[in-house]
Amino acid sequence: MRRDARCTLASRMRFFAIGQEAEGFIAIGQIATGVIAIGQMATGVIAIGQVARGVVAVGMLAFGMVSVGMLSGGVIYAVGMIGAGGRRGFGFVLPLVPIPRATPQLPELTTLDAISASRREGWLRAKLQLGASGMPELVHEGRVLPVTLAAKLLGAATSHAQIGSEVVARVAPTKNGLRVNELKVLPLGGMLLVGRALQVAALFALAYAYWSFVLVDLGDMLIGTARAFMTGQVQ
Hints:
The protein is rod-shaped, with a radius of gyration of 29 Å. It folds into 2 domains: 129 residues, no CATH class; 75 residues, CATH 2.40.50. By secondary structure, the chain is an alpha/beta fold. The chain contains 4 helices and 8 strands. A 6-stranded mixed β-sheet has the order 5-4-3-7-8-6. Keywords: Membrane, Transmembrane, Transmembrane helix.
């Protein structure tokens, strides 16, 4: 909003404005600007419209601190069919505030020799990979383990083998050899850090866009509104 527009708003402030280009404390129009704005293009503390920008924005295209829309961008919180926000609500919304996850508690690890000697099950750290036959294999200390995976594990194990996931495996001796009855996938520490860094970078980009395209104009409007109330120029 330009400086001359701010001065006009401050000197001729309407409490309730209706029109094609409506400016007031409560504004309703095709292009509406106000503390509460409702219109095709709405800018306000509370903005409702096809294109809405403000603190709380509701519209087909919504951009605010809190936003609700088909295409939604919210610095703090967003709800929408597609969007991004600090925290996500309903819809396909990309969360941009990293949330620390609890560190998984790993079972006590043992060795393959200990399992074979004691004939008792134990946990081994290993890496999943696809073998020559296309079936998942467990690699422990540089060699493929001579184990059989339980049938219920094959689907997930194959998926993780394609990306080389690190796991801990519960290995139990049986009369037919060693059998894996449970797998726990270990988090990818490096990839997790990269993902969080990208989230933070995207959050800063969203905040900068909000400052540039929403907060500057919104702040000018609020200053003009405050001046109009203080000077008694509200109609």
